[in-house]
Amino acid sequence: MIAKLVFKNDLRIMRKRPCIEHYEASYGIDKTRLARLVEAMLKESDNFFVPDKKCSAYLPVPARQTGQFTETGEFSFESPMQTSHKVNNIVYAKYYPSNRGAIRHAMEHTVEHTGIAFGEPCDSIASAKPCDSTSAKKTGRAIILVHHRGGNIESLDAMARIFANRGISALTMLMPYHGIRAPEGTKSGEFFTSANIKLTIDAFRQAVLEIHHATDWLYDLHPQIGIVGISLGGIVATLACAHDERLKTACICHSGADLAAITFRGLATQKIKEAFQRIDITEAEVRNYWKAIDPVNYIHKMKETCVLQLNTIQDTVFPLECQKKLYSAFKKSNVKYKLALFPFPCGHYSAGKYLLPKLYLLGHVFSFVKRNL
């Protein structure tokens, strides 16, 4: 009875959200070439998920109306993985310092090695000088927040402010193909997970590479860094942790493993499933390709990370078996790990909509980060 009510409630909430259509399906894909790429990613994952060079420059972004910097410092940088969509090649991030007086210091650090005056607009990232990470003073702890599919840079604003107001600086960033990074005519996140198998692999890889560059910037200011990922952001956060030893704590919320099963069995991705079915691509085939971005294949690299997995068993987007796969992988790898389940009858969307589940999530995540970071 409760499961039926949760399903109906999640379905009602999802229908109120903008519908995310599938992108072009994988017609005529070169299966042999794609299989070779997947095997190479699994064998030498650092070559694909770790940038081969430092970011050339981080540029402050003035407030859209006043042209001045607010208590939240926005900055941008060039994505380490360039795509055919120019709007997707610039990453936008927001910094929430635990000490609000530090915002000017952080932004001055951002432009200190770029040759651009503080507050001065800059149209070209290429015109800035490379950054130097040796001169910044490191203090305290910080957390990177990774939003859900279809979200934007403000999606985790409340969580970021809670962390900052309680002594832990926070950084939110816009994932590939989301918000203002979405190509014209597409919805936020439509290209991030789609029926285009290769595009989806590239989008996850690009997100991980960008988190690495964001961590470079944050590490110049804070010696202890953790990461929080919500929904599909949880998969991205796990992949990022596995390939960056500086991320010491990870909170994976409303997430799981096996993206193929999530796509074919979850409530939110039925249009993508239908697109695959129209071209006779099965769940098993998709799983074989998407194992390159399945976090369970890289968890063995996270032995120095403290992990919290927070789920609701009535989740209609990340099925219970997908949650269990992630849990089992963490357990087998001997990672310092904690599993927490929502004590409320709520689903994927309702857990983020109603006050009591939201407070439970925020309290659990903050207390875990505070203890382990």
Write the layout of secondary structure elements.
Elements: H1 2-16, H2 31-43, H3 46-49, E1 58-61, E2 73-78, E3 90-96, H4 102-112, E4 141-146, H5 157-165, E5 169-173, H6 197-219, E6 224-230, H7 232-242, E7 247-253, H8 259-265, H9 270-278, H10 283-290, E8 306-311, H11 320-332, E9 336-341, H12 350-353, H13 355-372
Helix pairs in contact: 6-7, 8-10
What does this structure look like?
The chain starts with a helix and ends with a helix. The chain has a nine-stranded mixed β-sheet with strand order 1-2-3-5-4-6-7-8-9, sandwiched between helices. The protein has helices spanning 2-16, 31-43, 46-49, 102-112, 157-165, 197-219, 232-242, 259-265, 270-278, 283-290, 320-332, 350-353, 355-372; strands at 58-61, 73-78, 90-96, 141-146, 169-173, 224-230, 247-253, 306-311, 336-341. 39% of the residues lie in helices and 14% in strands. The chain is an alpha/beta fold.
Q: Which features does this protein show?
A:
373 residues, globular, 13 helices, 9-stranded mixed beta sheet
Number of strands: 9
Look at the helices and sheets and give the structural class. Answer: alpha/beta
Tell me the overall shape.
Answer: globular
How many H/I helical runs? 13
Overall mean confidence score, pLDDT: 81
Main β-sheet, in a few words? 9 strands, mixed
Which stretches of 5+ consecutive residues score pLDDT under 50? 1-22, 65-71, 111-136
Query: Numbering strands along the chain, what is their spatial order in the largest sheet?
Result: 1-2-3-5-4-6-7-8-9
Helical percentage: 25-40%
Distance between the termini: 40 Å
Tell me the radius of gyration. Answer: 20 Å
Order of helices and strands: HHHEEEHEHEHEHEHHHEHEHH
Strand content: 5-15%
